[in-house]
Structure formats: structure tokens, C-alpha cells
What does this fold into?
Amino acid sequence: MCKTKKLHISKREMPEDSESNSTATNTDFLSRFSNFVDQNLQLIQRSVYVAGAVVLIGVGRHLRLHHRFTSSSDIPPRFYQQNVKLLGTVRHRDKDTNVLSVSHIPPLPSRFVSLFTRSHKEKSNEDLLKVSIAGVQLTKSGENWIDINIVNRNVWFKLLESPENNFIPAIITCRIKKYPVRTNVNHLLVQKGFGRVLDRYDEEPTSQIYASLRSQLLSAEQKAVKKGKGDWENKSGWKKLIGWKTVKRLFKKKD
It folds into this structure.
């Protein structure tokens, strides 16, 4: 009987010993891992940063976030279709066409990308995008206003449709004095009487955003004429005629 009891006791104690050994092993592993992390914390952090940077650059290269566009043909067709908004600096205004020459600023700096990719050729500052103020024909006052408030300033320009004669029609927004937020330059010019709505549409614009912009500009033009704003001041003889033409263009397609 005594031998049998001893056998049973030893069998009961065996699982407890194995569990204690397993717990000790796990504790030892966690202790070693914790010490390794403490001793190599900076190395681990740098590795994470490098891995994140590589992923970011890979996504940036796919989306062309590091590429500086220098002509309308550089811009992917999907950018026009999706009405992508780009950032750039207005270098000057063409006196003949009133088109803005814009130096595109890519979201991801090229110098940063070059640290992880093949060396690239720097492009000349003379390679500028030709951006037109969509739907607006500038007056003399508008030209002066652009030169004072927009030239040499950073602007956002939203692509509306495929370019015509390499001119990119866009909605331009910019931070202007006396306005707390970025201002729609296209609308502001017409609202102040510094620009007129282009009357060149035999058909509706292909872009829905462009069609909406046109409608807003026509409404702003009618109000500017009625109030005698900007170049409409002291032109009462033309107010009724211009106002009628604006209304006619608004409802032209609804008849």
C-alpha cells in the first residue's frame, strides 16, 4: 500500500514541476526581450522610421507626389478627371493672354526622395505651368489686382478639365489680406467687377465642377453689374443689357 501511495504522489507532482519550469522559461524570455528592447530602443525606433519612410516614398512615387510638373502634358490624365488640387507659386502674368505662369510645388520634396532613390536631374525654374483663371476674362482693373495680390504668392489651383493650347483651366484659391480663409480668386474677380464671365460656351462644360463654377460666376456678375462694382461703375447705360445677357446665359440650356 505504501508503495502505491508513493507512486500516486509522484505522478501528481510531475505536472506541477513541468508547469513551473514552463513559467520560469517564459519569464526568462520576457526578461531577456525586455532588456534587449531597453538596450536597443533607439535602434528600433530608427528602424521603424526608416521602414515608414520607405513605404511613404513608395506610395509617393506611385502617386507622383515628388514630381514637379513643368507642362500640362506632365500631369497625368487622371488628375484632370479627378479635379486634383495642386500647389504652386505664381511667377508672373502673361500680358497678352492673362494666363498665370506657375511653378509647381510637389507635396513630397524631391531632395528628400533623392536620398532613397536614384539621383534625378533638377529642372529649370523656367519650366512653368500655364494656368488660366477658369471662366473669367480679366479687365484692366483685374490685371492690376492680379499683379498686386497674386503674383509671387503661393496658390492652390484645382484642375477642371483637359488643357486647351497648353493652358490649364483651374479654380485658383489663395490667402489674401482682409480675408481670414483662402479665397476663390475666380469668383472674387467677378464679384468685385474686375472680371467678366467668358461667353465662349456653345455647349455645357464637360466637368460638373466647371459647370457649377460657371453658374456661380454668372450670378456674381449679375450682382456686380446691378451694384456698379469695379469696371461696371458709372456704366448704367449697359446695366440692363449686360444683366439681360447674364440671365439669358443662365437659362439658355433650360429652355
About this structure: The longest strand covers residues 85-93.
